[in-house]
Amino acid sequence: MNQSDHPSVVQTLRQISRPVWLLLVGMLVNRLGNFLQIFLVLYLTQKGFSETEAGVALGAYGIGSVVGVLLGGTIADRFGYRWTIVVSMAGAGALTAVLVHLSAFWLVLVVAAATGLLAQAYRPASSAMLVELTPEKQHVMVFAVYRLAFNLGTTAGPLLGALLIAYSYDLMFYVDAVTSVVFALFALRLPHAVASAKGEGEEGQRKSYLAVLSDRGFTLFMLALFLNAVVYIQHIAVLPLQITADGHGPGVYAALLSLNAIVVITLELPFTKFVQRLPAKVAVALGVGLVGVGMNLYIAGPAIAMFVVATLVWTLGEIIGTPTASAYPGQVAPPGLRGRYIAAAAFPMQIGYAIGPALGVALWTVWPSGVWWGSSIITVVAVLAAVVGMRQPVSSEDTVAAPSPGADVPLDEAHAGPRDSS
Fold this sequence. Notes:
By secondary structure, the chain is an all-alpha fold. It folds into 2 domains: 3-198, MFS general substrate transporter like domains (Growth Hormone, Chain: A, Up-down Bundle), CATH 1.20.1250; 209-401, MFS general substrate transporter like domains (Growth Hormone, Chain: A). It is 75% helix and 0% strand. The two termini are 30 Å apart. Residues 397-422 are annotated as: Disordered. It is a multi-pass membrane protein. GO terms for molecular function: transmembrane transporter activity. This is MFS-type transporter YqjV.
C-alpha cells in the first residue's frame, strides 16, 4: 500500500482544489457567525418575551433545522449543489436580519423556524460537493479538514457573540446575517453544476427518500448513527449530574468539555492520516465502540483522573469514527440521490440528540449507573449494525455497475479513502 493511496495532512492541504477551499472557508466564516441558536433565548427574554415563549421559539428553530436538512437533500439532488447553498445561506442571512425588527411572538416563531430550515439546508449540498470535487483517496482527510473548520467556528463563535453582545444584540445578529451572506457569495464561485447532482435522466428525478430507505444496508448504518447519538449526547445530559453526585463542582464539567474540544481540534487531522487506511466499517465500528466504552467508564468515578480517562476514550472514538461516518453516505449513494443519502444520515443523529437527553435523565432518576451500563448495551447493537450494514463504497471506475439501493450487497471491507460532521 503506497503513500499516494493515503495522502498525508500536508499533501491533502496542498492538493485541495479552489472550489473545495471556497466551501471550507465559507463554512468556517458561517460557523463563526452562528449566533442565533446559541443566544436566541437570552435575546428574546431581554426583549420582553417570557422564558416559555423563548423556549418555544428555540424549539421552532430546532424543528426547522431538522426539516431543513431533509429538504436540503431533496433540493440539492433536483437543482444542484451550488444554488442550494446560495439560496440556503442568503435566505438564512436575510431572515436573521429581519428577526431583530419583530415584536409579535407569532412572527418570531415563524421566522425562527424558517431561519432554522434555511440555515441547515446547505449541509447535504456542501458534503455532496466535497465528495464529488475531491479524489476518492482524499475523501477521509478532506472531511477531517471540514470538521476542523466546523469545530473551530463552533468553538470560537460563542466567544465572538459574547463580545458583540457587549455592544448590542442587534449588532450580533447583523453580523450573523453578514457571515451567512458571505458564504452565499463564496458559493456563487463554485462550479455551476456537478454531474451527478441531478441524477441520470428522468429516473433520477423521480427518486425520493423511499429509495434511500429501501437500501437495507444503509438503513442499518442509519440505525448505528441513531444509537451512537443517543449514547454520545449523555455527556451533555447526564454527565453533569454524575459529576455533581460524585462531589465535584461545575468547573470539573467545564474542564472536561474543554478537554474534548482541544483534543478534537488538535489531534483529529493527525489521527486521520492513519484512520484513512482502515476499511470504512472498521473505522466507524471502532469509533462507535470507543464512545460507548468511554461513557461506561464514568461508572468508575469519583476520582477526577477517572473522569479524564473516560472523556479521552470517547473523544478518541469521536475522532476515529466521525470523519468516515460523514463521508460514507456520499460515497455509497447512487447517482441522483447523493444529497438525500447525506440528509438521511443526518436525520437519525438529530433524533438521537433530541430524545437521548430525556431518556438518559429519566433513567438517571431511578438508576444512575444504569445510564452508563445502558450506553454499553446500546453501543454493542450500534457496532453490529455498522459492521453488518456498511459496504464497500463503489469507486468512480465502477459507477456503471453500481447496485440499486435495494439490492443485496456483499459486505466486503471498504477502505476509508472515500471517507465522510454533521
